[in-house]
Amino acid sequence: MINQTLKVFVTVVDKKSFTLAAESLHMSQPAVSNYIKKLEEELGVTLIDRSGKLLKLNPAGEIYYHYANEMIGIDERMQHLIQDLQNESKGPVHIGASYTYGEYILPKMIAQLIRRHPGIKPDVSISNSASIIRMVDSHDLDIGIIEDEERETDKNLNITRLIRDRMYIIGNRYTPDSLDNKALGAATWIVREDGSGTRSYQDQLFSSLGINPETITLSSTQAVKSTVTNGLGLTLLSHYTVGEELKTGSLKIINGESTELTRYFHLLTPGVKFHSKSTRTMVDMLNEDSIENHHFES
């Protein structure tokens, strides 16, 4: 269990007030002040600058605050994991996914998870691949799913291939079914932002075709689809994202037989020894249809 001094110090800093910290902790203001005084005496250094109207951390205080927060977080995770051993799968699981998987595939997986384990409470973040990698590495996410395999080895993570994806050149209903490289290079392309897994494959396509077209950058797959539907250019997208538009005919695949690109969604978990039962349950469900079985560190 984390000692009370750590909690008092962090609360004082977060509230920027001894008085507000005392109210939050249900303590008297003198008691809070005494905790901080004894802490500074024990360390032999002042942590908080009290000279101005607002409390301000000095460099020593910044260090202590950073690691105190980290220790409190570790303590909370430890207690949660120990309680997990005695209970069925329930509680939060923090899942992050890049846009394609998160918006078009993950909702069905979450619905399936809740039907099987109603006590689990998914907390979902949707962002680009680079952001998901950072959040898994910093333990802000229990599970990450990305669509970009180029940067995956930069972090100390458990990484496996999840499912296969196919990507195609997409145009609107009036675009010819086939375009040569000259026409592709002359077209405007609607692309995703840097950091997006889809963007990295769009760039790979340009390189393989030997073209350097004019581009318009948008940060949402839905915005990309709407822009292409309105005739402003071509794009490269996953078949998962355009299923409905292909059925209605508002979008179509261009050069389907010659320019299909294959990629894989990747499943990431932090490289730590212990994971919550909720996390393990979600990963077990993903493993049912995955290309590679995802194992945790033993």
From TrEMBL:
Limits of the HTH lysR-type domain: 1-58
Any Pfam family matching the protein: LysR_substrate
Gene3D superfamilies given in the database record: Periplasmic binding protein-like II (3.40.190.10), Winged helix-like DNA-binding domain superfamily/Winged helix DNA-binding domain (1.10.10.10)
Keywords attached to this entry: DNA-binding, Transcription, Transcription regulation
Signal peptide boundaries: none
PROSITE patterns for the chain: HTH_LYSR
Domain of life: Bacteria
Family: Belongs to the LysR transcriptional regulatory family.
The protein's name: LysR family transcriptional regulator
